[in-house]
Amino acid sequence: xxxRLIFAYLFAQHLAITLLVLGLLVIVLxxxxxxxxxxxxxxxxxxxxxxxxxxxxxxxxxxxxxxxxVMLISAALAVYRAGSxxxxxxxxxxxxxxxxxxxxxxxxxxxxxxxxxxxxxxxAAAAYRKATQISAPATAVEAAYAREIVxxxxxxxxxxxxxxxxxxxNRLQGVQLIRVDTAHRIEIWVKARQADWTEGRWVxxxxxxxxxxxxxxxxxxxxxxxVPESLLAFPQTVMAQRLAERLSIPLLHLPATIAFxxxxxxxxxxxxxxxxxxxALPMMLGAVSxxxxxxxxxxxxxxxxxxxxxxxxxxxxxxxxxxxxLEALGAGGKIWIPVAEWLVPVxxxxxxLILAKTKRL
Length: 361
Hints:
This protein has helices at 3-40, 48-62, 67-84, 87-93, 98-101, 103-135, 138-142, 229-232, 237-240, 254-263, 269-296, 305-331, 337-358, and strands at residues 145-153, 156-166, 171-181, 186-198, 201-211. It is α+β, with helices and mostly antiparallel strands. The chain is elongated. The longest helix is centred in the first third of the chain and has 38 residues, at 3-40. Helices cover 60% and strands 15% of the residues. Strands 1-2-3-4-5 form a 5-stranded antiparallel β-sheet. The protein contains 13 helices and 5 strands.
């Protein structure tokens, strides 16, 4: 049999079992979501149909976090099935190295990851966003919110603080405008009761100078504040736009969301974590598939399914724990976020190759 046909056969076997395991875990995930939503949405006015809809809309976005475990389980089952029918032993007798037999499992994982990242993620994000809109009361969506933004340029930085953002970002209340130079010395600091977006600029109401204005000798009071036009022309969109939950943002929109979060002085680390998680997902699924296959594959079928199952479950736990810890460290600024997301898949792939060499497959 030609190697290409062998790889296609193992690839098809792995993909078929992956779809089966995925379907079962989707049902489990959906039931878990339904139970959680029913518990926390008690008294919200949603009937059973509404709760089912919310669970169904949230499940696709959460699926990305169980996909590594789906690939671990399905790869082990595919190898065990081929081994129980002595297909793996026959393939190895043809002279094909065990490391090459890991290739179809790796490619299957990469394919599943690419399909989810490129096609599934936009749909999952839209569904999660819809679920958020359904579950959030209208008053909460329309309520005022505070906003702090930082706009930097070559001459310094502008800080804009608003206690309340109203009318879709067209009116601010409790406003402070601060301009500092490149050495972080305050050049002007103005407070205003209100600011309204009018004809492409902000118009202040009851403005008072806190710093940067001289006192009039005759009255002993500060002169009326003179606010630079550049400080009054900061974009209205940065006040109107609100940061959404990271699961509701598709991959293609994450870079713009990260840039916006930085521009308004909001934390962007978890959005970066989500971006690099999705980029690394194909590699992650391919690597854990190859590692699972390397754990279970043997030249001769031994029927030691108990030990293999424990090994696969322990690997799933290690992958989950390592991913969670590294993501937390990355979001906390302890390590570089790309390293946090790519370290586990690269390590898993190297472990699969080393294991195949050690077992002399």
